[in-house]
Amino acid sequence: MISFDIEREFHNRNITMIGVDESGRGSWAGPLVSTACWFDFTKYKTLHSEINDSKKLKSSKRREIILSLNNFVKYSSSIASVKEIDMYGLSYANAIAMKRSIFSLTKELKNSQTHKKKDFCIYIDGKFKPDFENLDNFLKFKKLHLDIYSVKMLVKGDSLCKTIALASIISKETRNTIMRQLSIKHPSYFFDKHFGYGTKNHINAILKNGILDLHRKSFKPVATIYSKKN
What we know:
The chain is of the alpha/beta class. The chain is built from 9 helices and 5 strands. It has helices at 5-12, 59-68, 82-88, 90-110, 132-139, 162-185, 191-194, 200-209, 220-229, and strands at 16-23, 32-39, 73-80, 120-125, 149-154.
């Protein structure tokens, strides 16, 4: 089981620790979803006992965990659109989605007396640190003001840190819900089955029905099909 060691350390140091993870990097269609998450460590024993890496949980269990969350858990989910993925590239679009989720959550937390004078530490699942400073300069608004933040990467963080694991669960279910809704609009693509990933059924649906605006044309497999169709 994943421990609470990271959360305990920052609680003892009176630092607000936030976990961040995303869903949809490898998908051929639909948005990226990033979630930033925080919970009150003094109540950690009341959290669902099966919080884990979202990939290790069935959808029904992920939904059960999300429905069990109380108001001592705060989170924000944000997206990077297909247009942004194609325009800026996957890594930059992913950083944009993460920045949005972190900005929204930190803004909410800093409005409370509990966090107003605390430093923040942002733990992100993965190996490569997003260039948030560059994003601040590029996007020109809703700046994170990174001088008061400490951003750390944690490889396989969703298997090592409860907060990141919870963020991964929320991101995956949020994105899956989006793809289920898109499947209602585009039933012949079966987005509710493969959620946009490059399965055989998805490839066959694209070959039969063509490319949608929902497809990431910057991805090589989609771009190849798209070029053949045009």
